[in-house]
Amino acid sequence: MKKHRYVVQRPFLRFDHRITDIDHLADDLRRSSLANIIANDILSERPPSVIGVYGAWGSGKSYLLSQVIRELLERNRKGGKQQAIVCAFNPWQYEMEQNLAAGLIKTLANIESQFPDHQQEKGYQLHNPSLGGKTTHRLIASYLIDLLIEVSPLVVPGGGVAAAAGKAIRSATTTFQQTKDQRAQPLLIDEVKGKMAELVEAILDSAHEADATKQKQYRLVIFIDDLDRCSPEQMVRMFEWLKVHMLVEGCTYVLALDHIAAARAIVGRYREYLGEDQDLAYGLRYLEKLIEVEYELGIARDVEQMAIRQVHYPHKVPYRRVSEMAQQLRGGDFPGVQHIDQLLSLRSLLVPRTMLKIVNRFKRVMEFLREHPLANQLPESYPFWVLFLIAMYYRLNPDHLDDFVRGRGTIYELMKNPGSVQSGQWGNGPFREFCQYADRFGASAGSSLQILRVEHLLVLASIVRESTFDGRL
């Protein structure tokens, strides 16, 4: 560490987990058993070629992949006969290059730099098996990257290699050179899979040769995260490369993605070939052919507790619910605290990343108000309304929040006068959930908890957005 560098005692809370961050993992969402199951699949006698981990953005897919990686490396450390060589690939980092497959090969070429030495809190280290300094896999990877770059222009956006060949054949203006390229195309494409098999075999052979016991069996495991953050075109093209050219012996892929977003991308890519069959079912059937075993992440348990622990880390706190945290931050009980648990039970708020953002922002706003004289001018129920506005801020259209703090809109009307807006006008998704909550709130709270005046709501909304306030009521 250079002397002029600022020493960070505790890193700022991160909302985007990297799968390579395998130190100090906590099983707050109780998914360690699922991580063990996936690790068992990978190291079984008949391992699947592709495993899918499905879930919406923010559902904890990346964190689960880190748990699986750590479990595999733990088993390596314990000297099991079945050993995993782990490769973590983030295609999002290579999207600007317009060739995700080549990015994957570049990552494999440098696999020895991944998980070389992870010091654990228990005093031992987790790392990939050694390749003994062999460079054969790098030479093969270099050739394969050149091959992929040469082949890629032949894979046009219309729908894969086969579609590209079909369009070339049907072209009325095909020249002799185009015909020659078309004949060469299958040879190049066939060579990709052969070289991929050589690359995997070279990595496994190097690990075996570096093993002093010569008793262990090795399997390459490639974890692909954030593929659904890439453009639909790049995502589907990566599916095509995997399905046709990159599934080889000795290698398992673990893909974490939003399968609904992936299905939409697949339908969009093949739209001109589907005719009237353009629903999600086609995209989901496509994924079924590629992914042999899938696990879909549902609503996680103890999401609130996870978020509370994360925002207070490394300090331990005695409470498990945000309602308890709110009382602690407020310095005691307050009107509206009894409505917090029901608010945070809304399905759309139980996404781990969403809950983490809500709790973190709530803590920051409450700490700001605790030190600001403005808090003395607000009604005692302001902590509840702070949390409600933050929940709206993270889950709803900004216009809905803007309407509410100005004393208008469906949610405001339902809180003031339950049943005043027909359920047919509540829309769908998170907005409907908030409308249902507002209707129940208006009916149950009655006169015991009134909505804040518009001037108070506008002030709190400003603090929620900016975490500060330099004006006055």
Automatic annotation (TrEMBL):
InterPro entries: KAP_P-loop, NTPase_KAP_P-loop, P-loop_NTPase. Residues 33-297 form the KAP NTPase domain. Gene3D superfamilies: P-loop containing nucleotide triphosphate hydrolases. It holds the Pfam family KAP_NTPase. It comes from the Bacteria. PANTHER family: NTPASE KAP FAMILY P-LOOP DOMAIN-CONTAINING PROTEIN 1 (PTHR22674:SF6), NTPASE, KAP FAMILY P-LOOP DOMAIN-CONTAINING 1 (PTHR22674). This is KAP NTPase domain-containing protein. It comes from Chloroflexus islandicus.
